[in-house]
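A quick aside before the break. I want you to see a complete sequence-to-structure record at least once, exactly as it would be stored in a machine-readable document. Don't worry about memorizing anything.
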Amino acid sequence: MDRSWMSIKNYLDPKYLDGVDEFIKFAFLGKDPNCKLPCPCKVCNNFEDQTKEVMANHLCRGIVDSYTRWIYHGEGFESDDENDDIEINDNDSDFDSMEELLNDVGVANFGESWRHSPELDTGACTEKEGEASRFLRLLSEAEKSLYPGCEKYSKLSFIVHILHLKTMNRWTCKSTDMLLKFLHQVFPTALIPSSYYEAKNFIRELGLKCEKIHACENDCALFWNENKGLDHCPNEKCKAPRYKSPNSKIPRKVLCYFPLKPRLQRLFVNKEIARDMRWHKERRVDNENMMRHPADSLAWKDFDRNHKSFAEDPRNVRLGLASDGFNPFGTMSNSYSIWPVILVPYNLPPWKCLKDPFFFLSMIIPGPKTPGNDIDIFFRPLVDELKELFATGVETYDAFREEKFMLRAALLWTINDFPAYGYLSGWSTKGYKACPVCLDETTSLYLNNGHKCCYMGHRRFLPIDHKWRREKKQFNGEREHRQPPRTLSGEEVLQQLLRIEQVEFGKAPDLLQQKKRKRVQNSSNWKKMSIFFELPYWSTNKIRHNLDIMHIVKNVCESLVGTLMNIPSRTKDTWQAREDLKEMGLREELHLQPGGGASKVMPPACYTLSRLEKKNFCQFLSTIKFPDGFASNIPRCVKTKECQLLGMKSHDYYVFIQRILPVATRGMLSKDVSQILVEISNFFRKICSRTLYLDELEMQEKNIILILCKLEKIFPPNFFDVMVHLMVHLPTKSKIAGPAQYRWMFPFERYMPLIFNNAYLIYLQFSYFLTTRAEFFLDRKMGQYKGYVNNRARPEGCIAERYLDDECLTFISRYLHDVPTRFNQTERNMEKHEAAGKLSIFSSLARPFGAALIGYLSEVELQRIHLFILKNCEEVDDYMR
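That is the input. The structure line, written in tokens, reads:
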């Protein structure tokens, strides 16, 4: 239905009144005319139940603008204008659901003819003869009742339900075995498997496969394609054996690769998902000044212009790639690094994009060592498959259109933290030229006392006539005449890479010695040509590797908080920094002063808090509260007596710098410092917004240059590490690639948590707060891959096996309509509670927790509450004019 009438402010407009009539018909369709339903008017706000006539009268006074998905009046989370084409009958028996499941799997595995001939002539498909016979066995089991006289469950549906409950409720394998054995004893005539292992193997044919490719233990090459029959590494400088011993045939290192083609094909087996894969083209509202989805970005549109044949079919998939390392054992005493590689399709609408069911684990790069620059060796199978998918595609059946088509796919960009950025791009993210955007024009300075590089000189980004370009004393003592560094296109980068000497991959001793070379300030930081340049479109992409906003925000906030509170291990205001200031001839008032004897005294700086101010700062943090699901319990990280902040995670810093820091330090710091903190907070809030506006981003491009120049006038050079410098490029990257939530590491690092970052459940809560969607919070898989490891001797194998099982059950759960699944669970705050009054400010959806307490407010608190109501309540707007 057309919902544009909801935004009309003239409630006597005929279009608005017609919209109200259509809504009333939709809400009470098939219901008792005398029943009561939640009223969505601005007064009731779905908290008060009203009859049909009363609701119609109320809506003539206005409807809640944000109530665009009518979940209280019969519309599901996934419903939209075209849902009439997809019918799901929740009253169907499990026999019907399993038949639908097997039909869809048959189409995916054996082609469209399966729907018309489910008997499957196994002799006609010799290559899939074994697979077909096993699938026919599943089909026969789906027709058998669980026990004589059972009309609802078959053996297949029972096993599916049991395994689904195990996954949803995180039962252990042992507890599942005990339950199955008990049920087998109680119902001896029922076709119940005796163990979890037997049940898992029974439905394994419904899932997809994993290829295990042997690799050189020194990361020199894969024993694949032309090297498949070799017993030793093909690299002449390595020659490492393939197997642990000649007779055992047990490989020393194995790459688990999950083919992409069948996983993309399975997206189109289900009608609902197949329809959503066209959303970006057919149902997305295009606005030239607004970006809410990667399809709105300049990078997406530029790709469509360069590859028109690819863009003609909206079903062709755009992919993003993310990878990072994690320790599967969760202990610092055992250094082991596994690198999962995850692919995510961007065709889906925002409420499904970047959700767990649509994450494809592409490969598991084995440990124990970090692959480093040799990571390209392991990307070979994926790159070859991507090249084939872009050039010719793969024949796929579209269940929504009921037709075959050639499905193609392309990789838009990668998403990584900064070290992994260097591994995938080939640009070294260390040293004098660490910035991968400025490249050879990076401005850097080595600090003799701090023994590190700092990245200042942001005045070069200012307009050529700006007055700060001529100032000397407050900056580096020199005038700034340089132009901003020019951003190179993909073709220009490729030309640079073609001129450098390519290194041999591997970690053999001879190869490591060859790779070591002393880097000088004027040399380029390219270390290799990335394997992704083999993709025919990679050099034409507007953006190839994303700067991870999550880690930039975390590092900048950590530096700010550490410096403001003068935390010894995190502050940038050290005696070495003061000595560097003296060498540079800057800010004489901060230079070390002679003390008693040979000691020196550090004068207090305007950007550090005193002991009393730090105590007040911590007391403020210890009392702060957030809405449910918005942030973690930050007061738990506060040590008021010691004036310390301990244990804050990445998302804690994210909330801290945007919402807390400027308010918590108000009145404690000088005006210049307080103002710069407010500007940084507003900058990150704008950049990380779910909806980006191009004119706003252009304004932030100018603002961030002024912010960094102000920081240079206040903070010591030690403060300006590469993460602070990368802030200057964030608005430009956002203009090209779109909203940050599609390009940061939050959703991926909850899969791959490092030892110090295993609290990414907070991200799920935060995403739930932003999107008001149940899936983000209820699909909680914090550290999913780490939790898969049961055998410490084979962590990669454990992850691969458990992922295949989970992938299979995720697919099956779409066909379970009468049990809670990750696709139909309701929101946390779906319970309705009547407000204390009739004002709209008290009618927001909420779920109370804890016991009720009776208290009395002071006169000051009453005045604050009255003022808040007067400023935020719609009913008093007319009286405030």
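Two observations worth writing down. Residues 694-714 form the longest helix (21 residues). The chain has 33 helices and 19 strands. We'll return to this after the break.
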